[in-house]
Amino acid sequence: MCTALVVGNMIGSGVFLLPASLAPFGGISLLGWLITAGGAICLALVFARLSAILPREGGPYAYIHAGFGDFAGFWIAWGYWIALWAGNAALAVAATSYMQVFFPVLGHNDLLAGVFAISLIWIVTWINSRGARSSGVVAVVTTLLKLLPLAAVTFIGFFHLNTDNLVFNPHQKPLLSSLSATMALTLWAFLGLESASVPAGDVDRPEKTIPRATVIGTLLATVLYILSTISLMGLMPSDVLAASQAPFADAARLMWGDWGYWLVGFGAVVSCFGALNGWSLMQAHVPAAAAKDGLFPRRFNQRNAAGVPIFGLLLSSALVTILMAMKYAGGDSGVKIFEFIILLATATTLLPYAFCSMALIAIMLMRGKAFSPRDYVAPGFFAGIGFLYSLWALYGSGAEIVMWGMLLLLLGLPIYVWQLKERHAAD
């Protein structure tokens, strides 16, 4: 279930569109995939080591709190929580877009599309309210259902390859700038690799289960990403692939006809739904872990009979609903607001990665006698690579987004001060 949570949260809506975005770069994109995958695997190893040393609920928040103290823990939990529920809005909208394959009216009627998207949010909220096992079962089922059509198109596509389509640099673009562009595109496909560490309190033998799930899940997603890119680039000429609005579906139609197109359309909807289910689980557990430590209002750790942090789950879903109402009711301006918030949320998700890379070394240093100098060699290497990877990713987000991200984080300061007042009053 933990591995399914990692794979399901990483493989959301983006993978269905990435081959088209990468097509103009040809074989250079494979180098981009490999470099980005190297950084992601280093981060996966960081989270694996952290979860083995400190198997606590809250994932990135718990590690940063342990490594850098109350303020850093609050700061990251605040930004990460906002990024989680805002990202869920994007997944619900993407699922609604893919449903147009079956119900074209959703593409022309904003009211119906809005009602459908918001209904999805509250369906996964209900699933998650029934407990971590309920969410885990959905994660396993949806991950299998989404991987089957993706894997089928990818592996059967190798039998239909046209080697003339496989060109290293089809448009003779400068190598370094092309490599940088492909790394920026592939980067977003790895967000979510930390997912297994968040519900640690509900995981059996978390010190062993979470590290394995994190590394295996990241490797599985990496293999599928790279093989699917090669397969689709071999199936279609780069200009045709670049113009495709649904590359996997178009590839399936080439090989199997219309039924293949419908099959992959179904896989895309299931993919978005599965990712939405997994991220909804996380939007409840991150603020609950902070509330348990007295850094968020106590109500965020209020749990129902199934042990689910119900207040945080319901509040997060209510905020997603408001965000989607802005998107569907605001016309063009609403769409722009929505896109900006999602971009901001994605950039904010990267901050915990940089902090966690250094938190691993900080926690090991705090437990100095438990580790010999040799014990620092491997963690020091992959923590250093993970830190540089995260910094590069933040730089690639652009100065404006980083500035707004900082303002968003600073907005949490009054809440932190208020919580300090509450804690002192209780003492």
TrEMBL record:
Main localisation: membrane
InterPro entries: AA/rel_permease1, APC_superfamily
Keyword Cytoplasm among UniProt keywords: no
Keywords: Cell membrane, Membrane, Transmembrane, Transmembrane helix
Membrane protein topology class: Multi-pass membrane protein
Protein function: Major component of the acid-resistance (AR) system allowing enteric pathogens to survive the acidic environment in the stomach. Exchanges extracellular arginine for its intracellular decarboxylation product agmatine (Agm) thereby expelling intracellular protons. Probably undergoes several conformational states in order to translocate the substrate across the membrane; keeps the substrate accessible to only 1 side of the membrane at a time by opening and closing 3 membrane-internal gates.
Protein name as it appears in the record: Arginine/agmatine antiporter
Natural source organism: Chromobacterium amazonense
